[in-house]
């Protein structure tokens, strides 16, 4: 009886020891598994910065770019002494070649006297400009004085506003040839004898702004 009881106690002890070992081994295995899989935390999103284009290099002070006041019209400011007085630009002509001088359209309006300056009773203002006209008779560029006083700027702006609408019959070169050559300008076609070619040219104008008895007077010379 005592022997049977001892065996029972040993069996219970063995079972208890086995359960204890199993629990310890399971706990160790779980701890190792938890350590083997680290927790990955997603960092908070950073601030999104806008992409800013790098600044362009500044243009040289000594060589300002041409100013554009309207499509196809450019302003080149040069010292007054450098504005030449030649009315047209031509190449060397060949024997038998002649030129038809350019003609301004009769409805080319003169600049307006700046109305805001009328009460100032300013003395006469004269501004010299050179017009670069293409073969179609429209102005491509205006060359004005770079040393223009600031008080005269409204007069120059008035000149530009008027020149934007000016048009010319261009300079035409004619050579001996049979037949006639049509040249269209401003919706009108002119027939020239022989072989005719429309050419670009330049013209110099001096616009004079003055007042007579309080009335504005503008002239082109």
Description of the structure:
The chain has 221 residues and is an alpha+beta fold. The chain is built from two helices and eleven strands, in the order αββββββαβββββ. The protein is elongated and about 60 Å long. The chain has two domains: 1-35; 67-220, TonB (TolA/TonB C-terminal domain).
Please tag this protein with its features.
11 strands, 2 helices, alpha+beta, TolA/TonB C-terminal domain, disordered N terminus, elongated, three-stranded antiparallel beta sheet
As for the CATH topology of the largest domain, it is TolA/TonB C-terminal domain
Supply the number of structural domains: 2
CATH C-level label of the largest domain = Alpha Beta
* Mean pLDDT across all amino acids: 73
Global structural class: alpha+beta
* Helical content band: 10-25%
Number of strands: 11
- N-to-C series of helices and strands: HEEEEEEHEEEEE
- Annotated CATH homologous superfamily of the largest domain: TonB
Low-confidence stretches: 1-9, 28-74, 76-89
CATH architecture verdict of the largest domain: 2-Layer Sandwich
What amount of the residues lies in strands? 35-45%
What's the total helix number? Answer: 2
Measure the end-to-end span: 147 Å
